[in-house]
Amino acid sequence: MNRFVLSSLGSAINALAVLSPVEAGKRILQLFSTPRTGRLRAQDREFLETAEWGTLRVKELDVQYYVWEKSGPTVLLVHGWESNSARWKVLVQRLKKQNYRVVAVDAPAHGASGGSEFNAILYADFIAAAAEKFKPDVALGHSAGGMALAYFLLHHPGILRKVGLLGVPSDLGQITGIFGQVLGLSARAMQAYAEQVVHKFGHTLEYFSVAEFAKSITADCLIIHGRDDMTAPFADAERVATNWVGAKFLATDGLGHSLQGETVYRAILQFLGT
After folding, report:
1. % helix / strand / coil in the chain, to the nearest 5?
2. pTM for the full model?
3. Helices 187-201 and 172-183, interaxial angle, to 10°?
4. Burial letters for 1-35: b for 16+ Cβ neighbours within 10 Å, e otherwise?
5. Torsions phi, psi for 81 (to 5 deg)
6. pLDDT digits (tens, 9 = 90+) for 167-214
7. CA distance linking residue 69 with residue 131, whole number of Å
């Protein structure tokens, strides 16, 4: 969206927040939960067709998964916001060469999965279904996928031996606050949104914090984050690493938020092999 459209949308929501805070909160939650991109493109399908495709059923939604069969340990890959499982192409190729069995899932409203809205709790349910079926030893999550993976680990302790978090934001409140500033949303509108989060999910915005989740998770962890990440603050990764006992930390330069590079692939393979 261009700046004029964003400003107009923010102004409309601010006006609605005066007349009907509940409706404004619902509108903001829907806006923050609806991806604009991330469905499969032709080039995504070309790569993903090298895998076996299948679906799982979670809360009346189809969860699309992809499996590259090998005889080694199973690695589960969890992509981020406005993306899909094709983002793992190069890493999948590296893992296959090392004989890992690779499973990837598409998030709600992303890739070939069902749904029209995304949230970390529902994505964690997708992860749980995949974990139950494929029994992975390790899972790797990028961006919002890493946040959903941490939420999954918090509620399913002992399922995974190792986890990797790549470019993961820590606090939902901080991230949505940034979106609110971009839209020019008023304090009244953001309060209405915060109240709607509690109503729908039973938790405050402050609850959804990977840094806080980390204090209760015991799986071995590798955290990779770019110093030049313009989406998820580098300080987020530092806080998560501080709270996650024994976590390994790799800071990168020049790879931004996507973290697609040989330094990252080598670090992941080394982590999996230890």
Report:
1. 50, 20, 30
2. 0.95
3. 140
4. eeeeeeeebbeebbebbeeebeebbbbbbeebbeb
5. -60, 135
6. 999 999 999 999 899 899 999 999 999 999 999 999 999 999 999 999
7. 16
